[in-house]
Design brief:
Layout lengths: L35 H5 L20 H8 L3 H8 L2 E3 L9 H5 L18 H9 L4 E4 L18 H16 L3 E4 L16 H22 L6 E4 L23 H20 L10 E4 L5 H4 L15 E7 L3 H5 L9 H19 L3 E7 L12 H15 L1 E5 L6 E2 L4 E2 L2 H9 L2 H4 L4 H25 L10 E8 L6 E2 L15 E3 L1 E3 L3 E8 L6 E2 L3 E7 L1 H4 L4 E9 L2 E2 L16 E7 L31 E2 L1 E9 L3
Parallel strand pairs: 1-2, 1-8, 2-3, 3-4, 4-5, 5-6, 6-7, 7-8
Antiparallel strand pairs: 9-10, 11-12, 11-14, 11-17, 13-15, 15-22, 16-21, 17-20, 18-19, 18-22
């Protein structure tokens, strides 16, 4: 895409802080509560009494007719690039409301400032055409008493923020977002509880839909957040676990989405043909692409959109385990999932990536975030998806109305609808495809340039197979030597085996992130059985972070596939010594597939293995 100058976008400011509301749980003390934004939030808290919402912005009939006549795919293209108002109106304090608190005050409870029109306009000016406003509606509801009436103070506040966004000429998405996990009632063993859950859901959307039914077509209702799926079996308000099978979870999710569409359509006004956003199963791409997930029927023509989220790989996007992204495998994973999702756009459903982000717990921006975002946005251009960044003042600093990183700011600003509306769809898609292919090729070239010993059928190469205890960090796991199959940032020193002697191989995770413990590890020798049949490999020393590990058993030489030789260092799946196992002294006593022990939380910066190769007698 053609880049634009960022004179309208403010300079670099405070470090980015990760907040956790996207995951559907209240942020812990270590996530978001100590952010710079939360320290200043008191400066912008709500007034003691909330003024009623301003009148809905007047949007010309011509523009309304234009939106109404759009297809689902047209709508996605017009929605452009989006951002979430995260950890704000979905900040959960239902118990506070039950205790008599004004729900208008909960908005700052998860560390975000009280929302102003200036903030929303600033998001628009930064290149975001769409805003998603997550809401916890039970913050204003006494549903335990069977009263599903939404407190008008909460409704008014949501309406005010919606008006801010419409005034800024943004498309607006409103949902019911986690909301304390009341959704677990749908998985209850008691049919009466399930009936209450559906009654409450329908009452909630009856009120929301009725309140906004004459609002602009730029307002979109979203059926749920991530709850329509496995979370229907979350503990309900009584503390009971759900009992639904996987198939029943799919069936229930489909039923809820169907009831949502029928209810909104029955309300008249613009709700008869308003665009509706349907939550995918777990909002997970692979699970939503499962044949068991069904888009609901609709009386309106081409007015349904699909919502999924994208935090893949989770270890890079949302944990401290992995600090880099951009290997060919990383690109293939992202490109493959977005291509898989295109089955819905091919059926005519516009797709919204309702949340995506690379988050860092204690502030700052992870390396390669720009690569991750650029490739994701290219995929959205290629397949007609609307990307909506999950943001809790991480990128867009609401207190100061500035952006946290100039490179990312330029990426987002360049994707605004204004920059693309006069270009042909074919040109946009062609340019996106070229960018995706070039990025993948560059990643491959860079990776191969750093590999001293590429895979080869003409030599035996020793390396360390490794997967961390949480599987977040890995290097060439399996009997096929693949130095490209690793977490970005891992450095390996592998070695060619030329005959008898002592050798050392190693892995360095210091630039990768946080490698914890080991779920699996082994010394592998590619083509070992072919070039050195019958040879044994004795582990002399294992160093973790430069310190020797006391071995708890004796390793043995074996082969699973008759081609690759291996010595297991930690393999919990092997219970018995295989018949073909061999050792240099011929004694299998005390041999084990687990000769090193690492606690799950031990941080590994480096691991090296020194071993001796001996020919058969």
């Amino acid at each position: 895409m053609k880049k634009r100058s960022l004179s309208a976008v403010t300079a670099l400011v405070m470090a980015v802080t990760m907040l956790a509301g996207c995951g559907g749980e209240e942020p812990s003390e270590t996530v978001g509560e100590t952010s710079a934004v939360s320290q200043t939030a008191a400066q912008t808290e709500s007034p003691e009494e909330t003024a009623p919402p301003e009148e809905a912005p007047v949007i010309g009939d011509g523009q309304e007719d234009s939106i109404r006549n759009m297809t689902s795919i047209d709508m996605i293209r017009a929605m452009g690039n989006g951002i979430n108002l995260g950890n704000t109106l979905e900040a959960y304090n239902h118990n506070g409301y039950r205790g008599g608190a004004d729900p208008d005050g909960f908005e700052t409870g998860w560390g975000q400032p009280y929302t102003t029109a200036e903030m929303i306009q600033g998001m628009k000016d930064a290149g975001f055409d769409t805003i998603r406003i997550p809401v916890a509606w039970t913050n204003g509801m006494n549903y335990e008493d069977g009263d599903y009436t939404i407190d008008e103070r909460l409704m008014d506040r949501v309406e005010t923020v919606v008006n801010y966004a419409l005034d800024a000429d943004m498309y607006v998405i409103v949902n019911d977002h986690w909301d304390g996990g009341w959704w677990g009632l749908f998985g209850s063993a008691e049919q009466a509880d399930r009936d209450k859950a559906l009654e409450m859901y329908k009452s909630m959307w009856s009120q929301i839909g009725e309140n906004f039914k004459d609002y602009s077509y730029k307002l979109i209702f979203e059926s749920a957040n991530e709850e329509l799926g496995d979370r229907l079996n979350d503990k309900d308000v009584s503390g009971s676990e759900g009992v639904l099978s996987k198939n029943e979870c799919y069936e229930t999710a489909n039923m809820i989405n169907s009831e949502f569409v029928k209810l909104i359509r029955s309300q008249g006004g613009k709700n008869e043909d308003r665009f509706l956003l349907i939550a995918g199963y777990n909002t997970d791409i692979a699970m939503t692409c499962d044949e068991r997930f069904k888009m609901p029927e609709d009386t309106a023509d081409s007015k349904l959109l699909l919502s999924v989220h994208y935090y893949t790989p989770w270890d890079y996007c949302a944990t401290e385990s992995v600090d880099h992204w951009g290997s060919p495998t990383d690109y293939d994973e992202q490109n493959g999932l977005f291509e898989k999702l295109s089955k819905f756009s091919e059926q005519g459903y516009g797709v919204v990536i309702g949340e995506y982000a690379v988050m860092k717990k204690n502030g700052g921006i992870k390396p390669d975030t720009d690569k991750f975002y650029s490739n994701l946005l290219d995929n959205c251009d290629l397949y007609d998806y609307c990307p909506v960044l999950w943001d809790c003042s991480n990128f867009y600093k609401r207190v100061s109305n500035t952006t946290a990183d100039e490179t990312l700011a330029e990426i987002f600003f360049s994707r605004r609808y204004e920059n693309e509306k006069d270009r042909s769809v074919d040109d946009i898609k062609s340019e996106a495809k070229e960018s995706i292919d070039n990025a993948r090729q560059q990643a491959s070239d860079e990776q191969m340039a750093g590999i001293a010993l590429p895979a080869s059928d003409d030599m035996a190469i020793a390396w360390i197979m490794y997967a961390s205890s949480d599987y977040g960090v890995s290097y060439s796991v399996g009997d096929v030597y693949d130095p490209t199959g690793c977490t970005t940032g891992v450095k390996a020193e592998n070695v060619q085996i030329t005959g008898e002697g002592t050798y050392t191989v190693s892995l360095d995770f210091s630039e990768c992130g946080l490698a914890k413990g080991a779920a699996f590890s082994a010394l592998g020798i590619s083509n070992g059985e072919e070039f050195f049949p019958g040879y044994t490999y004795t582990i002399d020393e294992i160093l973790i972070n430069g310190e020797a590990v006391e071995m708890t058993g004796k390793g043995y030489t074996c082969s699973d596939d008759g081609k690759c030789t291996r010595v297991n260092l930690y393999n919990a799946w092997v219970k018995n010594i295989p018949d073909e196992a061999r050792t240099a002294d011929g004694d299998l006593t005390d041999c084990s597939a687990q000769i090193m022990t690492l606690t799950d939380n031990k941080r590994i910066m480096t691991i090296s293995v020194t071993f001796t190769v001996k020919a058969p007698d």
